[in-house]
Amino acid sequence: MPTNAPTAALKDVTSSDSTLRRFLHGLPGVDAVGLEARAASLGTRSIKTTAKAYAIDLAISMVDLTTLEGADTPGKVRALGAKAVRPDPTDRTTPTTAAVCVYPDMVAVAKQAVAGSGVKVASVATAFPAGRAALAVKLADVRDAVAAGADEIDMVIDRGAFLAGDYLKVYDEIVAVREASGAARLKVIFETGELSTYDNIRRASWLGMLAGADFIKTSTGKVAVNATPANTLLMLEAVRDFRAQTGVQVGVKPAGGIRTSKDAIKFLVLVNETAGEDWLDNHWFRFGASSLLNDLLMQRQKLATGRYSGPDYVTVD
After folding, report:
1. Cα–chain-centroid distance for residue 127?
2. b/e for 264-284, b at 16 or more Cβ within 10 A?
3. Residue-level pLDDT at 290
4. Fewest CB atoms within 10 A around its CB: which of 11, 92, 129, 236?
5. Angle of helix 135-147 relative to helix 167-181, nearest 10 degrees?
6. Where are the alpha helices (DSSP H) in the chain?
7. Quick one: pLDDT at residue 298?
8. What pLDDT was estimated at residue 46?
9. How many Cβ atoms sit within 10 Å of the Cβ of residue 16?
10. How far apart are CA 96 and CA 103, in angstroms?
11. Rounded distance, CA 112 to CA 121, Å?
12. 158: which residues sit within 8 A by CB, 6+ positions away?
């Protein structure tokens, strides 16, 4: 059953295509200039040494360490799992990552690699990354991942249906995937780079939350424009406003293009200043990344030792 079902106050808005369209198009329009200016302004905040050390450890704990390539092998996934459990083998105080994220056929391998560590296994599904498949195929994809042990499911919405204005179809698919996911937490990927406008990102955010998403996620990492401070800020505003209206808290996951500690810290500032401290936890905020962890580890080592070790001192994913 959905963990984030809409409250009675909002349930009627999904009763028909016309009521859902009326609700989504009745959301306040986005001031693009103001949104980008605020995101840029928050990105200039200065973080001092002690706070920076805390922020780096927090960011490490929020990483969904990801490999989503056609050339993925069991060996690569096992190595990724080992890195998620012990990111820096020379320093046992380094936090584990939040999760490893793989394709459904690699879930069992990942599950074994992180067994007993607390690291979650996330699986992309629903014909990732394009989502161009029949609903029955998408649901079979989800059920395979869950049967293999996935703790979390990262689904993609049907962007074609959304952009055509068929919001109820998108809603119904998310609800069906939510049901097929069982106890696994559901992250709903919008592919913000394909939604064209900030208004569409706001509408998609509310649509995903109404359908029972546990997380809303920017991107697959497979297109030219992925997570940006502005689109993430907009989604943080959406989850903040959704909780204020419904009492239900939903997480946010920016993914793709976040590669440096400096970038990650800017996103954490966005979280703190927009949604608040309740979201500064890996249960409610994640980074979808593959290369980010290495830079976080190098910056962590520099703060601890005063020396910059360089990329030769971290594993290559």
Report:
1. 17
2. bbbbbbbbbebbeeebeebeb
3. 85
4. 92
5. 20
6. 8-11, 17-25, 32-42, 49-61, 74-85, 107-113, 135-147, 159-163, 167-181, 198-210, 229-246, 261-274, 292-305
7. 94
8. 79
9. 11
10. 21
11. 10
12. 131, 169, 170, 173
Termini Cα distance of the chain: 36
Q: Count of H helices and E strands in the chain?
A: 13, 8
Task: State residue 2's pLDDT score.
Answer: 43
Asked whether the whole model's pTM tops 0.70, one would answer yes
* Residue type, position 177, single letter: V
Q: What is the pLDDT of residue 310?
A: 67
Torsion of CA 214, 218, 274, 278, to 10 degrees: 30
Q: Which residues of the chain have pLDDT under 50?
A: 1-3
Phi and psi angles of residue 136, each rounded to the nearest 5 degrees, phi first? -60, -35
d(CA 310, CA 266): 22
Distance CA 266, CA 239 (A): 19
Say if residues 149 and 100 touch (Cβ distance below 8 Å): no
Q: What is the predicted pLDDT for the residue at 8?
A: 56
- Maximum separation of any 2 CA atoms in the chain, in Å: 60
Q: List b or e across 174-206, with b for residues whose CB sees 16 or more CB atoms inside 10 angstroms.
A: bbbbbebbeebbbbbbbbbbbbeebbbbbbbbb
Tokens of 5: 């079902």
Write the pLDDT tens digit of every residue in 110-155: 999 999 999 999 999 999 999 999 999 999 999 999 999 999 999 9
Q: How far is CA 207 from CA 39, 57, 105, 272, 291, in A?
A: 23, 33, 29, 24, 31
Catalytic residue numbers read: 154, 217, 253
